[in-house]
């Protein structure tokens, strides 16, 4: 079993913190299924990056951002819900990505496999995580008002289309942060499960965010250690620890 480097620890902390904060808003916006589906959009980008001998995360992020713009544009034109459009785009992306990758490459893309982390990648990841957290913190009022009533939000001058796009971009960036550890199949779980656990235990948004971050961080570090000890991909152990936390939360009555 290898010892975790400081760089890896910082990346895990940034990834899980961003996922915990974002997950709370995903739960409140009722985009749970979308969280899992959106991560699959990264698969074609990973396939292209491997063919061009680029870093897989570079291709994944490009595909996620392109997919985000596609989802946002189709949603506006077709007047369908975000979840519906994400479902259509994710299905096509998963099919294309599966054709472009095979063997161990496909397994690692789907389930995650940590690789060597350089300083530049670490700094970019920390900046991306900080950007997601700052956006959600600064725009939390607008996001909450839009949840209560989009008509009220519009009457207050909130530009909902732009806000929706910004939220989807934050969503995509958070997913990209965790792909090397959880893969495209499981990254959505780190967004959903800690926030679902926090929703059961918290009585207000601040407490919900704190609990979600805590569960995400514990799940990530404990799951990474477990995966290393078992010499397995890191994604499944991380998710299993998060699921265990959720099951333990069921022992307590839900807050009102």
Biggest sheet descriptor = none
| Global Rg | 18 Å
CATH class category label:
Mainly Alpha
Structural class: mainly alpha
Mean of pLDDT: 80
Shape: globular
CATH architectural label = Orthogonal Bundle
Number of strands: 0
Helix content: over 70%
Spans of at least 5 consecutive residues with low confidence = none
Strand content: under 5%
Q: Which fold name fills CATH's third level, the topology?
A: ABC transporter involved in vitamin B12 uptake, BtuC
Please name the fourth-level CATH homologous superfamily.
ABC transporter involved in vitamin B12 uptake, BtuC
Helix tally?
13
Can you walk me through this structure?
The protein is 82% helix and 0% strand. The protein has 256 residues and is mainly α. It has one domain (6-249): Orthogonal Bundle (ABC transporter involved in vitamin B12 uptake, BtuC). The longest helix has 26 residues, at 205-230. The N and C termini lie far apart (44 Å). The model has no long low-confidence stretch (mean pLDDT 80).
Topology:
Layout (H helix, E strand, L loop, with lengths): L5 H23 L3 H9 L1 H10 L4 H23 L3 H19 L2 H9 L7 H20 L1 H9 L1 H6 L4 H18 L1 H23 L3 H26 L4 H15 L7
Helix pairs in contact: 1-7, 1-10, 1-11, 1-12, 2-5, 2-11, 3-4, 3-5, 4-5, 4-10, 6-11, 7-10, 11-12, 11-13, 12-13
């Amino acid at each position: 079993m290898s010892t975790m480097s400081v760089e890896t620890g910082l990346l895990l902390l940034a990834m899980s913190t961003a996922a915990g904060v974002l997950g709370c808003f995903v739960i409140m916006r009722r985009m749970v299924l979308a969280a899992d589906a959106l991560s699959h959009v990264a698969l074609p980008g990973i396939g292209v990056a491997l063919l061009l001998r680029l870093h897989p995360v570079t291709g994944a992020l490009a595909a996620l951002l392109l997919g985000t713009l596609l989802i946002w544009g189709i949603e506006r034109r077709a007047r369908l819900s975000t979840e519906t459009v994400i479902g259509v785009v994710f299905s096509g992306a998963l099919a294309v990505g599966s054709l472009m990758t095979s063997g161990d490459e496909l397994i690692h893309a789907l389930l995650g496999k940590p690789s060597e982390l350089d300083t530049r990648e670490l700094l970019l990841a920390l900046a991306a995580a900080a950007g997601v957290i700052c956006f959600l913190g600064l725009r939390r009022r607008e996001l909450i008002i839009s949840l209560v009533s989009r008509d009220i939000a519009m009457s207050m001058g909130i530009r909902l289309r732009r806000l929706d796009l910004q939220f989807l971009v934050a969503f995509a960036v958070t997913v990209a942060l965790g792909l090397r550890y959880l893969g495209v199949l499981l990254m959505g779980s780190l967004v959903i499960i800690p926030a679902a656990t926090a929703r059961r235990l918290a009585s207000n948004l601040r407490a919900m965010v704190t609990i979600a971050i805590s569960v995400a961080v514990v799940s990530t570090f404990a799951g990474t250690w477990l995966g290393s000890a078992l010499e397995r991909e890191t994604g499944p152990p991380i998710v299993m620890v998060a699921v265990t936390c959720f099951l333990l939360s069921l022992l307590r009555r839900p807050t009102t």
